[in-house]
Specification:
The complex is a heterodimer of chains A (about 110) and B (about 110). With about 110 residues, chain A is mainly β. Chain A contains no helices and eleven strands. By secondary structure, chain B is mainly beta. Helix content of chain B is about 0%, strand content about 55%. In chain B, strands 2, 4, 5, 6, 9, 10 and 11 form a seven-stranded mixed sheet that branches. Chain B has a four-stranded antiparallel sheet with strand order 1-3-8-7, with no helix packed on it. In chain B, about 35% of the residues are buried. Classes of the chains: A mainly beta (about 110), B mainly beta (about 110). At the A-B interface, strand 4, strand 5, strand 9 and strand 10 of A face strand 4, strand 5 and strand 10 of B.
Chain lengths: ~110, ~110
């Protein structure tokens, strides 16, 4: 069914360490995978996305990897900083021509100074 | 460009009443999606509109409805409010013709008493 599984639900890391969040989607036709960051009391913000024709995309300290065979995609944050503390959501569309975005349940990341 | 705006930002209603929320997309964006965010259920897709047509609908009861105007502004309506409708309602806009970069508004916090 329409489902995007996200793990872990909470993640605590020391400042400077790396953080990895993983998502699994169910619709093999999905071809776009965004990641959103939501700070407390604020709107979700698009931080990075990847399309199915590439396996990895980087933007400074953030990277996303995609394994279409396994239907997995992951967010990697290196050299974490306290301002990275937030809830992170992955998402995938349901169907290749659908504009219905299904979100994972979110990962609360805490970066300890 | 101005970002996505939503009005009102906060709303308190009683059970049985109805409510209308408004969303103004980024200039040039023709797609508006609506989501319900709750602590227990995360971000759930309600519906998506493009050029005044509903292209996709989530798994919500018929009490939830929406529409889009010719200027791309969108409204959603919830009739016969229930306590469980208390949530943050977010809209997101996108160009609608590309996959699928969506930008969120600040949300409307609805409390049903």
């Amino acid at each position: 069914g329409e489902n995007v599984e996200q793990h872990p639900s909470t993640l605590s890391v020391q400042e400077g360490d790396s953080a990895v969040i993983k998502c699994t989607y169910s619709d093999s036709a999905s071809n776009y995978f965004p990641w959103y960051k939501q700070e407390l009391g604020k709107r979700p913000q698009l931080i990075i996305d990847i399309r199915s024709n590439v396996g990895e995309k980087k933007d400074q300290r953030i990277a996303v990897t995609l394994n279409k065979t396994a239907k997995h995609f992951s967010l990697h944050i290196t050299e974490t900083q306290p301002e990275d503390s937030a809830v992170y959501f992955c998402a995938a569309p349901w169907g290749d021509s659908s504009y219905k975005l299904i979100f994972g349940s979110g990962t609360r990341l805490l970066v300890r100074p | 460009k101005a970002g996505v705006t939503q009005t009102p930002r906060y709303l308190i209603k009683t059970r049985g009443q109805q409510v209308t929320l408004s969303c103004s997309p980024i200039s040039g964006h023709r797609s508006v999606s609506w989501y319900q965010q709750t602590p227990g259920q995360g971000l759930q897709f309600l519906f998506e509109y493009f050029s005044e047509t509903q292209r996709n609908k989530g798994n919500f009861p018929g009490r939830f409805s929406g529409r889009q105007f010719s200027n791309s502004r969108s409204e959603m309506n919830v009739s016969t409010l229930e306590l469980g409708d208390s949530a943050l309602y977010l809209c997101a806009s996108s160009l609608g013709t590309d996959l699928y970069e969506q930008y969120f508004g600040p949300g409307t916090r609805l409390t049903v008493t």
